[in-house]
Specification:
The complex is a heterodimer of chains A (661) and B (304).
Chain A: H1 2-12, H2 24-49, E1 53-61, E2 64-70, H3 72-95, H4 105-127, H5 131-149, H6 156-187, H7 193-202, H8 205-220, H9 229-235, H10 238-260, H11 267-290, H12 295-322, H13 326-361, H14 372-375, H15 377-390, H16 397-415, H17 418-450, H18 457-460, H19 467-485, H20 487-498, H21 506-542, E3 545-548, H22 560-563, H23 567-577, E4 582-588, E5 603-609, H24 610-630, H25 638-657
Antiparallel strand pairs in A: 1-2, 4-5
Chain B: H1 2-27, H2 37-47, E1 50-53, H3 58-75, H4 92-112, H5 117-148, H6 153-158, H7 165-185, H8 204-207, H9 213-238, H10 245-269, H11 278-299
Helix pairs in contact in B: 1-9, 1-10, 2-9, 3-4, 3-9, 4-5, 5-7, 5-11, 7-9, 7-11, 9-10
Classes of the chains: A mainly alpha (661), B mainly alpha (304).
Chain lengths: 661, 304
Amino acid sequence: MYLITFQILLAFTACVFFMSKRHMSSFGLLIQLGLAGITGYWSVDVLIHGTVFERELLINFWGSPLEIKVDSLSAFFILVLNFTLLTGAIYSKGYLKPYINEKNHIEFGLHYFSLIWLHISMLLVCMLRDGLAFLVVWEMMSVFSFLLVIFESEKKETVKAGINFLLQMHIGFVFIMAGFILAFVQTGATFSFDGLSVYFEEHHSFPLFLLFFVGFGIKAGFIPFHTWLPLAHPAAPSHISGIMSGVIIKMGIYGILRVLTYIHTDLLGIGIFILIVSVISGLLGVMYAIVQHDLKRLLAYHSIENIGIIGIGIGIGLIGIAKDIPILAVLGFAGGILHVLNHSLFKSLLFYSAGSVYMRTHTRHLEHLGGLIKKMPKTAFLFLLGALAICGLPPFNGFISEFLIYSGLFKGLQTSSLQTNFIILGTAIGLTLIGGLAIFCFTKVFSIVFLGTPRSGSSEKAKEVDGGMILPKILAGILIVAIGIYPVFFVKMVGKVVELYVSDISLIIQSTSYMSKISYSSLVFILLITILWFIRRAQQKRVHVEHGPTWGCGYSGADPAVHQYTATSFADNYRELAPPIIKVGKHFESLKEEEIFPQPRSFKTKTVDMIEKNIFEKPIRKIINWMEKAAIFQTGNLQHYIMYAFMFMGLMFWLTIFKII
Amino acid sequence: MNTLGFVLAIVSSLLIPGIISITKAKMSGRKGPGIFQPLFDVARLIRKGSVYSSTTSVIFQIGPVIYFASIVVALLFVPFGQYKGLLSFDADFVFFAYLLGIGKFMMIISAMDTGSGFEGMGANREALYSMLVEPVFFILMGSLALLTHYSSFYDLFVHIHYDSYLTYLVAALGIYLLLQIAMVENSRLPIDDPKTHLELTMIHEVMVLDNSGFDMGLINLATGLKFALYGGLIANFIFPVEWPLYAQIVLFIMVNLLFAVAVGLLESFRARNKLAKNPKWILVLSSISLIVFLCAIEITQKLL
């Protein structure tokens, strides 16, 4: 019955074009709710009973019926993506309101059609196991997200970022396809995920895994495959950025985790490889984030960081399996997988808040914002919630997943060999640095955007967004707090997924005992804050409270908006420590000697992504240079081209005479 | 019995600032204030009215409350000899460190809330230094976890067995590191001198320029608590588990007293670092903590 409803819903999606522009979002939301309801029901069922859900879709594909299969891994990702896509759909209604008059019916319809089909294709990515069908829905997912990204297609940089995204997705696609084909050709088993298991049993796993890792890693945004993220996220409308960062990049993680379920050899090498890539992604992601000036670009770099943290969890989990340290394996996988959920919550919350700020101030540039907590208090507090969660601070959800990884690391230290000790130590140092840098970054962002005095007229005139745009943020916020305060339930849920990798998950049950102690400690903390706050309020009522200007060393004549710290100055002392990883280009025209009365001047700084520059831009520029040199053969004279043909024939002649070919 | 450690730590937190200032006064040949003077100051502040900058929002008011609460809850994790802390679980030191993190986060944004350039400087330095010092603590705890095969504060300290010379080195370096972490966390010498009154070079003191009344009282109390936090950890390094309870109480008080005197002495005879040198100085602490880790590996005989 559900299956039929599911397919009827698919058939109805095209109706979105026949709705009026105002009702498209509600119609889309309705369909998505239906889809989420059905798939969510299947997933919850799978997670509760630990069974695998298998059905055949009525659609025939390549002559054979299409089979969907939901195991605990799929179920977990389905739940995560349903939630974020629904909040995104709710948010889109308010966010796209100003565009109703600008965009025509087709453009609007296409956006919502793509949103629904993005949802469908992502659900199918999680459910299909057949290789070809998987590749088709994977491609659909990329294309529909491309259509969503280029919503504001009248802007040149948006289209440019969109095409960059589409190209990189296809490079990834080729790698994944190559992986499937290689396994298929070598084993002759079915062209599907299950076919991979045959290959991995007979051959070295690492090379084929590497193909899949690159393919899925481009989607996930591991460094050095991250270059599309900082371009696509600012270009996309904010609900799409939230969805993209929250769940689309997680499909890359899903792919990696799915492939890993079939691998049982070479795990140590794979684990160390993932760990190294992840620690680098985590560290560099946050290091680049700090120096960004564009709010959404900054958040995009943070997604790279969080993908790194997820990867760290998976990496140490694999090392745990390979070295037979169950506690390391269980806690590593649990932390990594839980972080998938956590990141999807706080990152979508942060992007929605950034979108609200952009909607009201029309700028994403940090140096033009400020003082918004007074104009948009709800958005400000929800952003703060997301910021605290992303820094991994208790009592919020980010802490729980990082705590699981940490406790895995420290427990792993006790039982393992010298080699793993050093790996674990390096990871722990990386993780603490990531945490510290994230605090540095988000204190900066929050205080520059929301605190102090407005730095431009547009942020002075800003006002709060309406309830429809606050609601999805509150929904995400509730889960953030719920996971932070009552982690036991969620850790148990993740435990079902971990079962796919580690058979003995009694350790997860053990860990829930101190999870409940964490909730206890968090509650003590919250209680203490509340008590102190009430004492403080009572005290404030009794005493005399005055208001005045901020202390400026006795000088209050300066313009407060100019006197306060900026994003650049906040990051300055950090920036001095960061080279050669971070390079900042400065542009300033110095005063001329004859200039007695200086004219107004501008000063520009620009940060350069050194990874992108050294790994991609420089070699590509070199290749282009060679190509250009090769162009001297292209003279445009017909006689030259005929000569080339004769020269080729002559060459062949000589080669055959000397029996070279 | 678990509460005893907490109560003792609270008591010593109230006395530590007084002892530090007496030590410093004696060293510089002054008579100095009484030991309870910092407490009188706090009591006066808590009764006083407040002045708020009109730039600030509610963040500025709730910041000090959360900061104070985070340190009090962190204190609940500190064990007392053979008694666990009031809150104790596996890898509780991660919770401990991140709890202090949220307190710092709130203090930094509440300083930025005033929109003052000076407080911006302080806030930004605080963020940078606390980021740099974090790995020191984690490497130290990791080394102890490696050494003892346990991973909660209580077990880490109880299960250190002084059976080789290197263990003494681990303990000595551990104590030294905790002392220095306390100095960095509280923005004291050598990274910052609370006596200077130049806003351009201060860290913690400049962050709280605009705070007054009740909030300032909480912040002052928090400074003492933070010292007691690390004093308590240092005491745990030294505790012989087999000693009777009364001896342990005496020892705990002695260690905290000595800790305060040591801080006072350090502050009397040491010049502050050049501000730009601070990050390097903190990185040196990280390398010392790596030595501790190597010692731990050597002791567990994994190296050969």
